[in-house]
Amino acid sequence: MAYFEHEGCNLHYEEYGHGTPLLLVHGLGSSTLDWEKQIPALASRYRVIVADVRGHGRSDKPRERYSIAGFSADLVALIEHLNLGPVHYVGLSMGGMIGFQLAVDQPQLLRSLCIVNSAPEVKLRSRDDYWQWFKRWSLMHALSLRTIGKALGGKLFPKPEQADLREKMAERWAKNDKHAYLASFNAIVGWGVQERLSRVSCPTLIVSADRDYTPVSLKENYVKLLPDARLVVIADSRHATPLDQPERFNQTLLEFLSAVDTTPIRIPDPC
After folding, report:
1. In DSSP terms, which residues pair with 114 in a beta bridge?
2. CA atoms of 24 and 145, how far apart (whole Å)
3. pTM, whole model, 2 decimals?
4. How crowded is residue 85: how many other Cβ atoms within 10 Å of its Cβ?
5. Would you give the end-to-end CA distance of the chain in angstroms?
6. pLDDT tens, position by position, 56-76
7. What residues are paired with 90 via a beta bridge?
8. What does each C-alpha distance from 14 to 43, 47, 96, 243, 271 come to in angstroms?
9. Cα–Cα distance, 77 to 81 (Å, whole number)
10. How confident is the model at residue 49 (pLDDT cuts 50, 70, 90)?
11. Tens-place pLDDT, residues 89-144
12. Can you say how many angstroms the Cα of residue 51 is from the centroid of all Cα atoms in its chain?
């Protein structure tokens, strides 16, 4: 367990293993625990760094507005703090959004990019979009975080044999700071970098669960906008793929990273 400071905020991270740096970034309302089933498999080959995003886990939770660009800037500071150079980046959900932001703003810092069940924008365009946002916003304000976690656990891990995962979800969500949770949700809504995806110069793997919140077709559409990307669909999985299909996810990720590592690195122009 370690901390560093960026813009007055103490940010928590952990390191495992040795080798090429591999940065893992969790989703909204979660923490480094998102990656509990990946760290052992990845740390045998890579220097794995898992970070708690500002407002999450063991990191500080300042009472301020959050933004995806701000989360990305925190990770740039972490990369510089540890003198990592170009890293492999893996982001789940909100962590994927942060990865897209980092990739378009600082492409020279990424060796590769893996986006899991995420998108390069969250824009409200239709009347139904606004209605769905309002319903979720209202429920998050009205319900306790444990209740939200219990409901999410039921959606993400519905099988009888996933009872342990459902209980973990409820327990972990209950530990969130509600102000930070809501501020992070607000940071997502309206954000987007889709029009800048041509700047993502590194090899990119898009992982989509077949039962994710958003359809596979959405990922198929934005993969076409990326210069060097491919899509892999994980069967019988929902939004938390690294937790509900860890073996398949780990194998897919390691195969991708191995292919990238055998290709000579090219540092793009940051301008």
Report:
1. 90, 205
2. 24
3. 0.94
4. 14
5. 35
6. 999 999 999 999 999 999 999
7. 24, 114
8. 12, 10, 19, 19, 31
9. 6
10. very high
11. 999 999 999 999 999 999 999 999 999 999 999 988 888 888 888 888 888 888 99
12. 10
d(CA 40, CA 43): 5
Q: Which residues pair with 234 in a beta bridge?
A: 209
Beta strands in 81-140 (DSSP E): 87-92, 110-116
Cα–Cα nearest to 184, from 99, 32, 58, 61: 61
CATH number of 2-121+193-261: 3.40.50.1820
Contacts of 178 (CB under 8 A, 6+ apart): 145
- Return the closest-CA partner of residue 48 out of 80, 24, 73: 24
Q: Are 249 and 234 in contact (CB under 8 A)?
A: yes
Task: Give the C-alpha distances (Å, rounded to integers) separating 161 from 152, 153, 158, 236.
Answer: 16, 13, 9, 14
Would you call 257 helix, strand, or coil by DSSP?
A: helix
Nearest-angstrom CA–CA distance, 268 and 271: 9
Q: What sign does the CA torsion over 151, 153, 158, 162 have?
A: negative
| Cα dihedral sign, 244-250-253-255 | negative
CA distance 17 to 257: 16
Half-sphere exposure of 58 (CA within 13 A, CB side): 12
Instruction: Report how far apart, in Å, the C-alpha atoms of 134 and of each of 148, 196, 213, 216 are.
Output: 16, 28, 17, 24
Q: Output the furthest CA–CA distance in the chain (Å, rounded).
A: 52
d(CA 179, CA 183): 6
- Backbone torsions φ then ψ of 95, nearest 5 degrees: -65, -30
